[in-house]
């Protein structure tokens, strides 16, 4: 029984002792090198028991006495006031006593010189700027504004760390460092720092502490390009224009860590400074007045910003005259109104210098601007926190007649009864007032006609003219102060015969159209083969053989003479024979060739060698050609000496001679 009781007591003691686990060795430090700085002590708890308590013991090794005992109010942390420690430059032992129930346990002792125990806060990266592979880092200064020893480490994503150390000076407001990185590559960096101890007992001390590592930061590449902006402007309404802006994000390596867009707007002419807007979206909506607006935008990431992109939104097109729907004036000028005016010498171009004020109205500036020069003004108001344009209008302080007449006056489309006159508008700089209309005088045959043409027209049709008459046309511009100089041109109408009437022109056009339609239909019919093909002539090869297939020897024409005797009754009187009857073979359908030259007296047969043909006669021509139709009758003919007629047919040559004895030789 005694043994059992002893074993029980020992086991209970061991169980209670197991409940008391000592903490880690305490670490005491101050946050700066200032001599009047209090200290903080920290340790790690290793026992999960919640009912445990901690007491921090400070032992002076020189005097062999406790300096202080601090009961911890916070878990794993205690504050040491400088007044309780006395002189912190002496060596001190520090440990933590842990109590769990009736049991106590102590941590390991730490021997330090408290004055040398300095631990800075972890560094904060204020700004980074990256350009051409160089990263400039700006860091916050320690609380004592002293220089420090820094350790920086960097790496590409998912690669090994590289590190180096550098030291900063006391005289700077911020700490700086330059790090060389590979261009267009994403990096990650971290930093920590350590105090530089200059007091005598700390020079050879190894107790200076590193701060915690700063938060790991992604380092993107610099943004090289300006944002590409798309601007959509809605139709103006109620004195405002709704503007929708959108743009694309930078490249992925430039967008790491997030991108912010900074917009600056100048949409109220009486404020010379731009409003600044910051957004992370890629769209922006705003409203502007009818006047000119300027917007600039930059994209900013952790290492810098892009070049600035400027957007110019022009004013609405300038009016030539005041709009009657707009109020002519505002009775009161205050901070909610803005009057904007400038010279508009050419009627279109807005000058670089623009006047604006929220203290005066149009009536106040009319006497201050140049006379006879066109000006333009906008009157804006601020209503319900929105800017609006209530008036936009050109104006003159004083007006007079134009300096010059219209330029380049010419006549076109002249007919026998009409013509068209053209001209160029008088430039605004030469108008010297609001142009009301153009005045046209047409003079001819002692009469003059007068016409007025609206100021926005540059041509006029002159009617009811007389054919073949010379006319003179004079044109001038008119303002409320009177007419300007004339521009003159002369022309003459056509005679009535020279021109085609509209009926003749219509007939001519119809004929031309019909001809074109006929040609088109014919071509289409041939191409589409709508008509049957024209048959080709059949040539008998056996009947007609070309010279290449025949014997090429010369053939001699045979000439035969025979005499036809005409029986005549002696009792009948001989009748005269007409020339038509004297031709013997004409009645039989033969072709007769008359020869003018008769050189020989043997019948006047021409040389047949001069007669050429693509084919020679058929060899059986003798039997064919000498058969004359029956009956053969010879009419009387008048006797003529050496009267010869020649006939050629079917390859035979016939010569007919009428002799003195009233016989015919064939």
From TrEMBL:
<dbReference type="InterPro" id="IPR053073">
    <property type="entry name" value="IL11/IL27_subunit_beta"/>
</dbReference>
<keyword id="KW-0732">Signal</keyword>
<feature type="signal peptide">
    <location>
        <begin position="1"/>
        <end position="17"/>
    </location>
</feature>
<dbReference type="InterPro" id="IPR036116">
    <property type="entry name" value="FN3_sf"/>
</dbReference>
<dbReference type="InterPro" id="IPR003961">
    <property type="entry name" value="FN3_dom"/>
</dbReference>
<feature type="domain" description="Fibronectin type-III">
    <location>
        <begin position="405"/>
        <end position="498"/>
    </location>
</feature>
<dbReference type="InterPro" id="IPR013783">
    <property type="entry name" value="Ig-like_fold"/>
</dbReference>
<protein>
    <recommendedName>
        <fullName>Fibronectin type-III domain-containing protein</fullName>
    </recommendedName>
</protein>
<dbReference type="Pfam" id="PF00041">
    <property type="entry name" value="fn3"/>
</dbReference>
């Amino acid at each position: 029984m005694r043994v059992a009781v002893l074993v029980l007591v020992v086991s209970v003691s061991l169980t209670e002792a197991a409940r008391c686990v000592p903490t880690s060795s305490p670490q005491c430090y101050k946050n700066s090198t200032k001599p009047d700085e209090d200290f903080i002590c920290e340790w790690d708890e290793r026992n999960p028991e919640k009912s445990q308590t901690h007491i921090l013991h400070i032992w002076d090794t020189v005097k062999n006495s406790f300096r202080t005992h601090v009961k911890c109010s916070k878990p794993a942390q205690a504050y040491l006031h400088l007044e309780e420690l006395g002189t912190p430059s002496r060596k001190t032992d520090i440990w933590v006593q842990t109590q769990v129930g009736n049991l106590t346990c102590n941590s390991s002792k730490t021997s330090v010189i408290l004055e040398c125990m300095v631990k800075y806060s972890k560094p904060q990266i204020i700004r980074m700027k990256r350009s051409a592979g160089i990263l400039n880092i700006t860091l916050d200064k320690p609380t004592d504004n002293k220089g420090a020893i820094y350790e920086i480490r960097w790496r590409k994503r998912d690669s090994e760390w590289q590190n180096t150390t550098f030291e900063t000076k006391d005289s700077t407001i911020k700490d700086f460092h330059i790090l060389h990185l590979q261009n267009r590559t994403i990096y990650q960096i971290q930093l920590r720092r350590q105090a530089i101890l200059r007091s005598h007992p700390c020079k050879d001390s190894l107790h200076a502490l590193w701060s915690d590592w700063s938060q790991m930061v992604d380092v993107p590449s610099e943004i090289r390009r300006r944002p590409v902006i798309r601007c959509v402007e809605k139709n103006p309404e109620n004195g405002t224009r709704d503007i929708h802006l959108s743009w694309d994000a930078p490249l992925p390596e430039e967008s790491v860590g997030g991108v912010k867009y900074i917009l600056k707007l100048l949409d109220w002419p009486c404020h010379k400074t731009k409003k600044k807007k910051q957004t992370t979206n890629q769209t922006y909506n705003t409203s502007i007045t009818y006047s000119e607006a300027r917007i600039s935008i930059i994209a900013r990431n952790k290492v810098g910003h892009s070049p600035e992109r400027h957007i110019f939104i022009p004013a609405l097109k300038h009016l030539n005259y005041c709009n009657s729907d707009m109020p002519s004036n505002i009775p009161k000028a205050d901070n909610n109104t803005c009057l904007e005016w400038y010279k508009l010498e050419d009627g279109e171009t807005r000058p670089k210098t623009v006047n604006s004020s929220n203290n005066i109205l149009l009536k106040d500036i009319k006497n201050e601007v140049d006379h006879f020069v066109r000006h333009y003004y906008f009157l804006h108001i601020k209503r319900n926190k929105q800017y609006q344009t209530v008036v936009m209008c050109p104006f003159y302080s004083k007006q007079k007649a134009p300096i010059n007449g219209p330029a380049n006056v010419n006549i076109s489309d002249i007919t026998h009864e009409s013509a068209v006159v053209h001209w160029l508008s008088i430039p605004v700089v030469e108008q010297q007032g609001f142009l009301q209309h153009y005045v046209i005088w047409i003079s001819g045959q002692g009469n003059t006609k007068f016409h007025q043409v609206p100021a926005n027209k540059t041509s006029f049709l002159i009617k009811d003219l007389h054919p073949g008459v010379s006319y003179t046309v004079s044109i001038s511009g008119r303002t409320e102060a009177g007419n300007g100089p004339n521009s003159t041109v002369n022309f003459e109408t056509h005679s009535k015969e020279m021109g085609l009437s509209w009926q003749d022109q219509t007939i001519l056009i119809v004929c031309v159209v019909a001809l074109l339609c006929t040609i088109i239909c014919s071509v289409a019919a041939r191409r589409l083969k709508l008509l049957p093909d024209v048959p080709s002539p059949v040539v008998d090869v056996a009947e007609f053989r070309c010279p290449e297939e025949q014997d090429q020897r010369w053939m001699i024409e045979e000439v035969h003479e025979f005499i036809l005797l005409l029986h005549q009754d002696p009792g009948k009187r001989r009748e005269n024979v007409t020339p038509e009857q004297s031709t013997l073979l004409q009645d039989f359908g033969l072709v007769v060739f008359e020869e003018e030259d008769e050189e020989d007296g043997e019948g006047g047969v021409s040389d047949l060698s001069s007669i050429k043909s693509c084919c020679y006669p058929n060899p059986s021509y003798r039997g064919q050609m000498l058969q004359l139709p029956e009956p053969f009758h010879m009419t009387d003919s008048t006797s003529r000496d050496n009267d010869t007629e020649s006939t050629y047919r079917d390859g035979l040559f016939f010569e007919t001679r009428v002799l003195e004895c009233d016989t015919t030789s064939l």
